[in-house]
């Protein structure tokens, strides 16, 4: 029997990009998956493809009750919860501190920090009770921006550093019952959204330019796609990682070894 046969995973932001690739990979491994996302169309496409192997919940990660609903339905339908992946996130488009008005920065703070930080907290909090029963684990999607500058603007970088802090504190507090780790992707070709208050201050970049920029920056010269990151999630969720907690695995084409 494969490791994830009959296991139950809950993920936020699974309707698109890196989350969607993770959803596909766990489903392929025999897991049941519950997804919370605000994209109605993205969720409908997954439901159409996978049917009863998935539960799709349209909601917002900043609302604790939406996570409670997801966890309740996962356990009601699949009988258990083994893994929670906090992944839904938004971006600040590399908005430059000096160029953005204080008002826009304040609006951006509310939006971005609520989704990127409180959204991760909410999901972990709502899942904990069930994860304790299965000795399960939590994985955060972080970013190189969680460790060094220039992976985003100030709020994105601050939010990703905060996710690392949250991950480490939870790993410490929830041991020995629940492991908590992170995957840290480098720049990846997805449709990661720039939040509305910062759009007037940033330049929209087309996918070709983005691909060239990602490729030039990392030593492996890869323009990464969402599928390139699924390996570390499968590893960290598995019993083969039972001694790993409080750790972040970089999946960034070697960007981290350059220091920047
Ligand atoms: P994406 O936009 O393709 O996927 C994000 C998903 O989250 C979308 O389906 C979106 O609908 C959902 N979402 C956003 N806000 C939500 C909310 N409030 N409630 C519910 N769902 C919400 O982007 P992605 O690149 O796959 O991003 C996934 C994660 O990967 C994010 O945490 C992001 O910071 C991180 N990341 C991305 C990159 C990159 O270059 N794309 C690099 C490093 C880390």
Could you explain how this protein is built, in words?
It contains eight helices and seven strands. With 260 residues, it is of the alpha/beta class. The longest helix has 33 residues, at 102-134. The protein has a seven-stranded parallel β-sheet with strand order 3-2-1-4-5-6-7, with helices on both faces. The site of nicotinamide-adenine-dinucleotide has 29 residues, from helix 1. Nicotinamide-adenine-dinucleotide (NAD) binds at residues 12-13, 15-19, 37-39, 42, 60-62, 87-90, 115, 141, 143, 185, 187-188, 190-193, 226.
Short account of what is shown:
By secondary structure, the protein is α/β, with parallel strands linked by helices. The chain is 44% helix and 14% strand. The mean pLDDT is 96.
Strand order of the largest sheet: 3-2-1-4-5-6-7
Q: Write the element-wise H/E pattern from the N-terminal end onward.
A: EHEHEHEHEHEHHEH
Distance between the termini: 42 Å
Mean pLDDT: 96
Can you give the helix content as a percent range?
40-55%
Low-confidence stretches: none
Ligand inventory: nicotinamide-adenine-dinucleotide
Question: How much of the polypeptide forms β-strand, as a percent range?
Answer: 5-15%
Find the count of extended strands (DSSP E, 2+ residues): 7
Largest sheet: 7 strands, parallel
Structural class: alpha/beta
Number of helices: 8
Shape estimate: globular
* Rg calc: 18 Å
């Amino acid at each position: 029997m494969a490791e994830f046969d009959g296991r139950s995973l809950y993920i936020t932001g699974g309707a698109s990009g890196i989350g969607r690739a993770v959803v596909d990979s766990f489903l392929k491994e025999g897991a049941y998956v519950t997804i919370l996302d605000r994209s109605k169309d993205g969720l409908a496409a997954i439901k159409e493809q996978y049917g009863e192997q998935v539960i799709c919940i349209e909601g917002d990660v900043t609302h604790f009750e939406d996570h409670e609903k997801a966890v309740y339905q996962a356990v009601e339908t699949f009988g258990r919860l083994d893994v929670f992946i906090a992944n839904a996130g938004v971006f600040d488009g590399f908005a430059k501190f000096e160029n953005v008005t204080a008002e826009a920065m304040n609006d951006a703070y509310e939006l971005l920090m609520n989704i990127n930080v409180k959204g991760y907290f909410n999901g972990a909090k709502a899942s904990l009770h069930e994860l304790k029963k299965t000795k399960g684990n939590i994985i955060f999607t972080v970013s190189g921006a969680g460790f060094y500058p220039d992976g985003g603007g100030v709020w994105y970088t601050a939010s990703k550093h905060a996710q690392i802090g949250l991950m480490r504190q939870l790993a410490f507090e929830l041991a020995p019952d629940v492991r908590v780790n992170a995957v840290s992707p480098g720049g990846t070709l997805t449709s990661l959204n720039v939040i509305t208050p910062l759009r007037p201050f940033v330049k929209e970049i087309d996918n070709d330019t983005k691909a060239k920029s990602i490729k030039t920056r990392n030593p492996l010269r890869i323009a990464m796609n969402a599928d390139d990151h699924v390996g570390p999630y499968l590893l960290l969720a598995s019993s083969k990682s039972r001694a790993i907690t409080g750790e972040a695995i970089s999946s960034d084409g070697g960007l981290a070894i350059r220091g920047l």
